[in-house]
Amino acid sequence: GLVPGLLNLGNTCFMNSLLQGLSSCPSFIKWLEEFTAQYKAEQNQSAEHRYLSVTLLHLLRALSCQEVTEDDVLDASCLLEVLRMYRWQISSFEEQDAHELFHVLTSSLEDERDRQPRVTHLFDVHSLEQPEITQKQISCRTRGSLPSVSHHWKSQHPFHGRLTSNMVCKHCEHQSPVRYDTFDSLSLSIPAAVWGRPMTLDHCLHHFISSESVKDVVCDNCTKIQAERILNGQSVENQRTTFVKQLKLGKLPQCLCIHLQRLSWSNQGTPLKRHEHVQFNEFLIMDIYKYRIPVHKSSQNELNQKNSEETTPGTKDGIAVKPSGTHFENKNLAGISAFHGAAPGVCVCVTHEALLTLSALSYSPSVYLYRLMAVVVHHGDMHSGHFVTYRRSPPPPKNPFAVSSQWLWISDDTVRKASLQEVLSSSAYLLFYERVHSRVQ
Predict the structure, then answer these.
(1) Of 243, 248, 224, 247, which is closest to residue 167 (Cα–Cα)?
(2) Which Gene Ontology cellular component annotation is one that this UniProt entry carries (predicted)?
(3) How many domains does the chain have?
(4) pLDDT tens for each residue of 31-48
């Protein structure tokens, strides 16, 4: 039930810990397998040294026991070499950050995807007007059906998500167009602790999406209203008001990487590390952080009427829900029912037994439910330290879709078994979750 360790090449624990965390995410490995399928046609043996995706896939498959290896300790120097080809100069003799390397890998994979040849779009007039392309396109379309087009350059990696930024004017309540930004990981600051209350991951998430006031912003709607009040056609200065800004998650990824910002600064400007423990659970509910498109009242009434006609009583959108005025008899569902009326900042613990009971009773409390797969921990201060990883043991080969309940503690080439309680009591730096798609959903 153990996995291979990784050789420390000189302060490379940051890379070793990240690779162990990524190897515990099956969706990411599956995406790499689909992405690298396009290179199998190349018979060149040096392809492994030219493509980051191929090199990373071989390492992660070996660390997840999907490739047979006789070595108990693997050498990941090939990853440093291919990253140097991508113009990332990562020295193995200096202190590095695992979260920074995570962004180097995801951005380099996107660069590799964007370098793949694309098919000319039908509305790309400039390209279609070229003589050689026009002749080729016409002959291709008149002689028969087009061959299947590889879609690898389109596919986003499983850590890719989108943030929404919503701006509303405090004066006229006019809402600006929603802005979308991409993210590969959620970098959460740790809010100030309240005495007597433990700090939880839900506190950090609520702090991340909490609204903030932005002063001195030009409001086009307020300017328009002011101009309509002036009849003599005088020029109107731009009206500056205060806006309320709020972030939410527009698209939740299949694999969720959460980075807890433990860097702070003293009054003298020196970097400090925050060592407080942030409580997190094996299962994470993300529904309340998801952005939902506002629906007008008239449209909402029509939608509710349609749902009432298409679904049976006791269901919502075809999914069974708790009837009003009833109570759960099973104690395992106490935490689930409390979630529906939980106040912001309340951490809800979802046990494995509760999920099994939910499946049995066809209850669906959450659409965006995530399971913890790995935790990267940093020991030490901001100037020196060591990265270790807690990760799940790989599933047995006979059932690759199963999720093991056995946890491992890995420090470079040292691997031992660990308990879930030890994992949840660690001071997490990076958290790797994977979305759970239940049969009910």
Answers:
(1) 243
(2) cytosol
(3) 1
(4) 999 998 878 766 555 555
